[in-house]
Amino acid sequence: MMMKHGQITRQFLLLGWVLAVLSGCIPYSTGTTEVGVCVVRWNPLGSQGVIDKWYPEGETHFFIPFLTEWHTYSSNQQVIEMTYSPDTGDITDRDDLLFKTIDGNDIGLDVIIKYRIIREKTPYILRNIANTDEELRTNIVRTICRSKPRDIFGELTTEDFYVSGNREQKSEQAKVALNDLLNHYGVVIDAVLTKDYRFNKLYQKAIEERKIADQTAEKNKASARAAEQEYKRKIEEASGEVNKMTANVDGHYQQGKLGADAFYNSRVEIAQAIAKEGTTEAEGIRSMTEALTGPGGEVIVKMKIAEALKNKQIFLLPVSGGGIDLKTTDVNRLLETYGLQKAVEKKDVSAPSTSPKTQSRSAGSAANQPVPTQPESPPLSSPETPPDNSSSPSQPTP
What we know:
This protein is about 50% helix and about 15% strand. It is α+β, with helices and mostly antiparallel strands.
């Protein structure tokens, strides 16, 4: 069914074309990227000239030949490339933009312009501007695009050209300015792009040398910064080591100080205890001295002697001049004569070969042996003739 409908449509079109040819009309078509404009050259019944109407892409229209003209314009985006190299661009010669920077240096700049026509204005373009795309491109778009960007990019200094952001900013500014000029001619600028740029050869060489010097300076600065960072790192490491050593020394010092303080405090406590004990002992001695030097001191001494001689054997030895008088007893003399000398002499007689150490122990044993207490000693026979102590000991009287 669809096939039949398509065949019928083609048949009607063919019939219409045949009728148009028979009536003197011929078809005019637009491509997929073209818009058309018709011009009436002669019309005795109406107006003449460009019809104020544009025909979109991919359509076919019938007009009477010789009385009408058919014009098409590309609706695609078109590119104008103006470069230094003759191998690229619209012209086989140097075609870059030549101008001076704001600081007076000559510069050549490669520029690419992307544009398209305004389809609604194609009748106006045909009527007032250009009959073909090439005329529009060469006489209008190219001429204006070579003039206005020079003024805009010429506002930059030489140093500014080295910064891509500055060039992009001027490119956008140039796009706006070109649209303000070309929209009236039915043209829209989509983009203004910059490629290479070049200065005067001598100046370019000086700039390159300066750039190399700047790069070398930056490299040296970077090396200096790296060396500075390395120096700071080593300083920090050394500071860390010093702090660590200081902490260790401080730790040992604090540990030694604590030990010394503890030792000092213990010795102070011991000294205080000794001083207190000495003070107490001195007080006791002082009290005892006061007591002994007092009225009852002699009695106390005798009582202490009595306590010391308690349960001890006492021998009354004859002395020259008679027996020992208890009333006039000299305590020191009594202690000297208290049974030790005779005991030592007896041991010396009975055991002459005994060593001094054995004699000392025997004397100590004899001194420590208890002896029976004798209340009084017998009178001596004669003061001139002392008794023979080696024959027999004196007998105590009951």
